Amino acid sequence: MSTIAIPTYVHARDPISHAGVSAQLRMRPDVLVVDSVSLARVAIVVADVVDQTTTGDLRALVKDHRPRLVLIVGAVDDAALVA
User: Fold this and answer.
1) pTM value?
2) Scanning 2, 52, 61, 65, which has its CA 20 to 30 A from the CA of 14?
3) In a domain? residue 1
4) C-beta separation of 48 from 21 below 8 A
5) What domain range includes position 24?
């Protein structure tokens, strides 16, 4: 049975996190890592914390292209979640 790969964009301000997440996803036959959010059905955002920069990145990614979002963070606090 063949699997259709889901075009996925990875956004991380840290180049090491970007490279690591992208490398892990490339090993999956059901994921196609793309270089442009305009080609993606899913966008993965990798950040250390949820802050104004992270929420700005999330808003910018969905502004024109509307991919499904996945947020991977190292730390979350209640105040940042409701902001």
Assistant:
1) 0.87
2) 65
3) no
4) no
5) 6-82
Candidates 36, 44, 40, 38; CA nearest to 71 is 44
Structure confidence by residue, pLDDT tens digits, 21-79: 999 999 999 999 999 999 999 999 999 998 889 989 999 998 877 899 999 999 877 77
Distance CA 49, CA 33 (A): 23
d(CA 54, CA 46) in angstroms, rounded, equals 9
For position 83, what pLDDT does the model report? 60
CB 18 within 8 A of CB 12: yes
The CA–CA distances, whole Å, from 36 to 2, 8, 31, 61 equal 25, 9, 14, 10
Q: How many domains does the chain have?
A: 1
